[in-house]
Amino acid sequence: MMRFWTAMLAVAGLTVWAGADRPVIYAAGHSLKDQRIALTAWGSGTVAESDETAFEGTKSIRISSRNFFQGGILSFGSPINLSEAFSDTNNLVRLTFRFADSNMTIPGGPNPQGNPGRGGGRGGDGYAPVIPGVSIGFGFMQRGGGGEGGGGGQGQPQPGAQPVAVRPPVPPALLDTIRVIVTTTDNLKSELYLPVANSYLAERGWRTTSFPLQAVSGFARTNKVVRQIAVSLESTATMFVGDIRVVQDSTPISVDVNATTLNLALNDKVTLRARGFAGSTLLKYEWNFDQGDAKQVDAVGPVVARVFRKPGTYYITLTVRDKYGLKQPVSKVITAVVNP
After folding, report:
1. What is the pLDDT of residues 172-185, one digit of tens each?
2. Which helix or strand (DSSP H or E) is residue 4 part of?
3. Which residues have a Cβ under 8 Å from the Cβ of 103 and sit 6 or more positions away?
4. Of 19, 46, 79, 180, which is the most exposed, with the fewest CB atoms less than 10 Å away?
5. What is the mean pLDDT of the chain?
């Protein structure tokens, strides 16, 4: 029943709500047309509605990018008012996404070769190619090759050409950030950089990452009525967006560690693992190894390794924090006895 009313609101051109104060920005399972969302390429990036993979239903949004200054733009025919959602620090925007992988074959562009000109005359028409590793199903017009002494012809798509199946670029290991730029109806822009490494695995290759509206740099000074969202990646990759919505999450931070006490010999190396949970909230892990400064951060991350080179008793403190500082942090203390 909820899905039915969500669809009806989208068709009517109204803001789609997941609850009393939690709007859906892009609903998995509903077409862009029904939601009055238009897609526009940003720079030499590409964006399109796709049926190659879906988080729910049969559609998703495919965005290809090479850097933070090109990608795809979602424009909302019915701007989304996030004023009420912004006022509650427990409201997060949750993005569900996945990267294209080597098992996917998705449509490319036509044959990129231009027809050569003859006898020094005008070169034949070139065809719209796929930009290697970047533009999936989209190409810039290239000039065809001219004959000797002749100029190249103006690039045009080949009539009746069939798309070439190409393998999408696999995101490099160093790809760890998604850039999001929000434009409101008062023409002000705000932005956020989302860490991929802190996202959560959902299912079938899909991941989720969430951020508080109050963490979007510059959003507080806008009228908070969103008319566009632009998405880009830090390097060459293709990303599918399956769902974007506001969720409410007041889950407190909790954490488990793989040890509470350690009994070690001198120069032993120990690996400490922590697993934090706070609902959709992104977390950061900070470790202090009791070296005289209780506030010093000696290591970061959920998994750290340490070698103890001096005998004694150490009190190792792990502090798990909300990445955006809105939830109360939690600390755990591990006692390590290093024998001479």
Report:
1. 554 789 999 999 99
2. helix 2-11
3. none
4. 19
5. 78
Residue 92: which residues within 8 A CB-CB, separation 6 or more? 210, 211, 212, 213, 246, 247, 248, 249, 280, 281
- CB-side neighbour CA atoms (13 Å) of 163: 14
41, burial (CB in 10 Å: exposed 0-12, middle 13-18, buried 19+): middle
For 2-104+169-248, the fitting CATH number among 1.20.120.140, 3.80.30.20, 3.30.1330.60, 2.60.120.260 is 2.60.120.260
Name the architecture of domain 254-339: Sandwich (2.60)
DSSP for 150-165? Answer: -PPPPP-PPTTPPPPE
DSSP-based three-state secondary structure for 219: helix
Residue entry with tokens 């998604």: 178
User: pTM of whole model > 0.85?
Assistant: no
- Nearest one of 226, 158, 155 to 190, comparing CA atoms: 226
Q: Domain segments of the chain: what residues?
A: 2-104+169-248, 254-339
